[in-house]
Amino acid sequence: MKYLLRICMALLMLGLVTACDPDDSEVTFLPSADEYNADFVLEWMDLSLKLTKETAGFTPPVSARMFGYVGLALYESVRPGIPNALSMAGQVVGLEASVLPEIDPNLDYHWLLVANAAMGHIVKACYAPASEINRFAVSSLEQKYEEQYRTKVSAAIHKRSVDYGRAVAAAIANYANSDGQEFCYQTNFPASFVVPTGVGYWVPTPPAFQKIPLQPLWGKVRTFYPNNADVSKVPMPPTFSTDKTSPFYQQALEVFATVNNLNAEQRTIAEYWSDDPGKTFTPPGHSISITRQVLAAEEAKLDKAAEAFARVGMGVHDAFVACWNAKFTHNLLRPVSYINQHMDPNWKTLLTTPPFPEYTSGHSTQSGATAQILSDLFGYNYAFTDRAHKDRTDIDGSPRKFNTFFEFANEAAISRLYGGIHYRAGNEQGILQGIQVGKNISLLKFRDK
Predict the structure, then answer these.
(1) 294 and 158 in one domain?
(2) What is the DSSP string of 281-292?
(3) Would you say residue 194 lies in a domain?
(4) pLDDT tens across 322-349, in order?
């Protein structure tokens, strides 16, 4: 109805006014961003997930950061075309309105061209170390949609839209680099880091016994929501003890017994949610995949997709910062280390223990944040089917059905217990930590309602 009304207005004005742009041959009233479908954005996110899997150094924290800036660039590029939309400038940490380009309100923009140009620029920037063939894939996808939409508008509108999209993405790329992590994919294991030592502290784990933990300073990286790591702190973990009656021993015993008696469904769950970097699009990529699937099922418009990817992207980034803050505050040893020392020296986990402290669980934290954000966007009783791993043959990647987003988050969390790499407290507190992170992200105002 809104689109038809605008067409009628254009027809009435033909013969009364001339086009505002001297290069345009007719009056043009293009749809606002909320009137376009988001199919092409979903294709861009599919490519981003592929690049996350195939680009060296894209560990979970690094990947989460990239998703945050990609989503933010997408949203800010189309924001002027969304009725009543508000900028994240002045809301997220360190982003000032003065660095973002502005549209000319008297001229038309084709918002699909704008978003496509923005995605092409920001994906190239965020995945700078991608292989030559993958960088070519980025350029090809951008060119595909630029050519497809070129015939829809005049040359002037086409150029204006592409230039604006690239300018917004360039501004967001510069903003991203200002957090000091431009080359974080090269510094996953900083040799200069001195590993803390003490009773119950993290020690390198089998089989690789990686001496330097992954991104040990990540807990200090800039968040999007102000102080999101600090305001999402978790309580102390159970006190370390070797006393067989202590809560700490009992939680380790639970891991030991669970792994030793896994049933088929528990094994499937552990492997399904493992999301190992290099083999998959990582845990934050799984959250982006779920978001993409929901948007596809909803046949979402461009405005909804841009907001969803921005919220979830910023949410998983903040979740990893908050989680890593906890990990390197408490420096808790992993179940395999405790069990090998105090229960069974030959015991092995189902999944490979990642090289960093236990408390809290990164899977749990980022899943809790995603569940909170998606529930706020789509509802607290939203049922969906996750098909993220339907094409995998190395595990049972059969689609999994959930009645709510929190069901998926809880399953992702418990999978780490089944895999033998987290205690229950790390999972449960991780979920709660992520929920708080997600609630904070949901406080960001995207619309002036």
Answers:
(1) no
(2) SHHHHHHHHHHH
(3) no
(4) 999 999 999 999 999 999 999 999 999 9
